[in-house]
Write a structure and sequence with these properties.
Rossmann fold, 2 domains, six-stranded parallel β-sheet, 18 helices, 44% helix, disordered C terminus, glycosyltransferase
């Protein structure tokens, strides 16, 4: 993440080649430009070409709304960066939405610091282009995120709408087709097949590819996993770390290569997901109907965890103690047991809610579902607005 500011600056260098590309399409311009939130330059280039821009946010309406509301109305008396702290209500959100200082993303916390390179980039290159977009494309669905659409739309000019068209997953909610030679070189699915006699018994662990997890934390996680007594499949990013305890073939499997995460989450042997709560992973867990042990680390992941645990009810959150504190093995063991012990009241409640989320995700992308209808309406409105422009020009 230390290269993040440099990466953001590098994206701005794409403006000229993108403008040249758009110019090459002048005889048959596109209906719309769909571009990432961070690629603010695409708005101006598209406008110069007479093309509308729809901005894509790689986050939920829930997290997006909170971030925008906190930027314009920072909470009084909240010490940023403090571990835990008392929950407070975010003005402009439904009354049941409560967060703590620990949940506030770094980019929001640093927004008033003009010396911060990320803040400077966002102000100079992103924010104005964002709010002037014709529409907002959101990878989510109405049953999950519909209550937070209005707070998001309130920040945009000219009546821009937020279109919830997710989950943007192939055959969302269905079991993915298996191509083990190409998609599963480590044999994860075959390993899970061997445990199919005990449905829901395996814990899947993955913290994504961006956050760095210290070796000391990996050690404690390994010990907690073994002590929980539940078999686990663990995708580890580090190539140098080794577990401090022996992990027998019946106890777990540690994988350092590619893991077909959607296939793993859809597998009947998997009963829970220890996740950093990046939004893509969160959606994959919801679409698969698997409860989550939420272990957020960076960006808006703490808000995603708050959404999943407190609002949707499909998970439990690890107690990190705030800041960079190492989560001990006892906490890991306790929360995994809470997540995985099928006879426990908490696990039963989470699994019931996860099953609801899976049904809702599948329904959203089915014929007549909210996300499919939203996408159809989006395309229809773009076509009508384009025809109106052509008629006026003609």
């Amino acid at each position: 993440m230390s290269l993040y500011p440099a990466f953001l600056r590098a994206t701005a260098l794409l403006r000229e080649p993108f403008a040249e590309f758009m110019a090459s399409l002048s005889s048959s311009p596109p209906l719309v430009v769909v571009s990432d939130f961070f690629l603010g330059f695409t708005h101006g280039v598209a406008a110069d070409a007479g093309v509308r821009r729809v901005v894509y946010h790689g986050m939920s309406c829930f997290s997006m709304a909170i971030c925008k509301l906190l930027l314009v109305s920072p909470p009084a008396g909240v010490e940023h960066g403090a571990g835990g702290g008392s929950p407070f209500h975010v003005s402009g959100m439904p009354e049941n939405v409560m967060i703590t200082a620990e949940d506030i993303p770094y980019s929001v916390e640093k927004f008033t610091d003009m010396d911060d390179p990320v803040t400077r980039f966002l102000i100079d290159n992103v924010f104005q282009s964002d709010v002037r977009s014709w529409g907002i494309l959101v990878n989510s669905f109405a049953a999950l995120d519909g209550d937070y659409v209005a707070p998001v739309e309130a920040f945009y000019e000219q009546g821009a709408r937020a279109w919830l068209v997710g989950p943007l997953l192939p055959a969302a909610g269905e079991t993915p087709e298996r191509d083990e030679e190409n998609d599963d070189p480590e044999g994860c699915l075959a390993w899970l097949d061997e445990r199919a006699a005990r449905p829901g018994s395996v814990v899947y662990v993955s913290f994504g590819t961006q956050a760095h997890v210290a070796d000391e934390q990996l050690d404690e996680l390994a010990r907690g996993l073994v002590q929980s007594g539940h078999p686990f499949l663990w995708a580890v990013r580090s190539n140098t770390w080794s577990p401090p305890v022996d992990v027998g073939p019946d106890q777990g499997r540690i994988v350092r290569g590619w893991v077909p995460q959607r296939g793993v989450l859809a597998h009947e042997s998997v009963g829970g997901f220890v996740s950093h709560c990046g939004w893509n992973s969160a959606l994959e867990s919801l679409a698969a109907g698997k409860p989550v042990l939420a272990w957020p680390m960076i960006a808006e992941q703490h808000l995603n965890a708050r959404h999943i645990v407190d609002i949707v009810g499909t998970g439990v959150r690890v107690d990190s103690g705030g800041g960079a504190a190492v989560v001990g093995r006892a906490e890991v063991e306790e929360k995994i047991r809470m997540l995985m012990d099928a006879g426990g009241e908490a696990a039963q409640r989470m699994r019931a809610r996860a099953a609801w989320a899976r049904r809702a995700a599948m329904s959203a992308v089915s014929d007549g579902g909210t996300s499919r209808v939203a996408l159809q309406k989006l395309v229809g409105e773009l076509q009508r607005s384009y025809d109106d422009v052509v008629i006026k020009v003609g």
